[in-house]
Design goal:
This protein is an alpha/beta fold. Helices cover about 30% and strands about 25% of the residues. The chain contains twelve helices and 16 strands. The chain has a nine-stranded mixed sheet with strand order 10-9-8-7-13-6-14-16-15. A five-stranded mixed sheet has the order 2-1-3-4-5, sandwiched between helices. It has a two-stranded antiparallel ribbon with strand order 11-12.
């Protein structure tokens, strides 16, 4: 069992190398071991390309190794259906693999235990649930999306020790240091979409791209989603001016056809949503984005949008970057505005807390529930 855990940890580390490139597919790593020696390694590198198992078996051939009678360690149950690539179970069977060690079952209805059952039908020994909790956590975005068909939403904000996201005059550059800002841009690479309110566009005119050097090789820009009920996003804003280069969605309430057409001609996509409690229905927006294949969103909104997102129940995880600074100011904005709650017992509670130091700043990460 110790040996299984050791090789599965290696597979988990390999899987991370695909982070940001495989959405909406999971990140998966695989290690092939024969007679106590690693003879092949692979991971799912990009969406639409070969999966981890096939890459690991190809690596065996590159090394001049024969995977017959070997054990393959894979963080997620091998697929058994044809999609953009052929099934991995087929490659495992053809390679003569003797044993498959699986981290977590795939809850995709197209797989859902069928891959494991097929391997066993062909006489291959399968060991399940090795480091299952870690493997599920690594693919929490994938599992949420495949089971709910809506994006996994990470609410991110940077604040001072006294809970301010800007000074009383509205200035916010920069609250955190460079290391924390680089971490945010890695998140923009890893998650599929980035969402802000029109107020952020009007105040900051942001690009909402991934522009700092990322720790991963290369980078990709997220899909930009602007919550803009009345379509007030300026045509001269960066998000509209670059809509032809970076996918940009404007989410709004019902608008006149001519007004929408102007934005569409500029390269933007328009999503019209129903109204709920005087605002756009954010749950309806999540369903629509999910139907378009968006599996994850980084919410970088101001206090008003953050409040709406929490109240509507779409937030799954919070990333709070805390700087060792104090701004003060009764009128200075905070990460979550709105009416707030009446009693501490009604608070939105974070669980599974993780703390990380980024230069002088602290990152607090937690899953969200109420």
């Amino acid at each position: 069992m110790e040996e299984d855990i050791r090789y599965m940890r290696m597979a988990i580390e390999l899987a991370e190398r695909g982070r940001g490139w495989t959405n909406p597919n999971p990140v998966v790593g695989a290690v092939v071991v024969k007679e106590g020696k690693i003879i092949g390694e692979g991971f799912h590198e990009r969406y639409g390309e070969l999966h981890a198992e096939r890459n690991a078996l190809a690596d065996c051939r590159k090394r001049g190794e024969n995977p017959e009678t070997a054990t393959i360690y894979v963080t997620l149950e091998p697929c058994c259906h044809y999609g953009k690539t052929p099934p991995c179970t087929e490659a495992i069977i053809e390679a003569g693999i003797k044993r498959v060690v699986v981290g977590a079952k795939d809850t995709n209805p197209l797989v859902g235990g069928k891959g494991i059952a097929l391997l066993r039908e062909h006489g291959i020994e399968v060991t399940e649930s090795v480091l299952e909790e870690e493997c599920r956590k690594q693919n929490r975005i994938f599992f949420h999306y495949i089971e709910n068909k809506t994006p996994y939403v990470v609410m991110k904000y940077a604040m001072t020790l006294d809970g301010k996201i800007a000074t009383a005059s509205g200035k916010s550059r920069w609250i955190t240091g460079e290391k924390a800002r680089m971490h945010v841009h890695n998140l923009r690479h890893e998650l599929m979409g980035i969402m802000v309110g029109v107020g952020t566009v009007l105040t900051d005119n942001p690009s909402l791209n991934c522009r700092l050097h990322c720790s991963l090789q290369g980078k990709k820009n997220p899909i930009r989603i602007i919550c803009d009920s009345a379509l007030r996003t300026p045509f001269e804003s960066r998000v509209v001016q670059t809509a032809g280069e970076q996918k940009t969605i404007l989410a709004c309430l019902a608008q006149e056809a001519e007004k929408k057409k102007l934005y569409e001609e500029a390269g933007c996509e328009i999503i019209e949503l129903p109204e709920k409690d005087g605002h756009m229905d954010l749950k309806a927006l999540m369903r629509e984005l999910g139907s378009r294949g968006v599996d994850s969103i980084l919410l970088e909104g101001g206090g008003t949008l953050n409040d709406s997102a929490l109240q509507s129940g779409i937030v799954h995880e919070v990333h709070a970057y805390i700087a060792p600074k104090i701004f003060g100011g009764a009128e200075a904005k905070t990460p979550v505005m709105g009416q707030g709650i009446d009693t501490p017992a009604e608070a939105f509670q974070l669980e599974d807390i993780r703390l990380e130091q980024l230069g002088e700043d602290i990152l607090l990460v937690g899953t969200c529930r109420k």
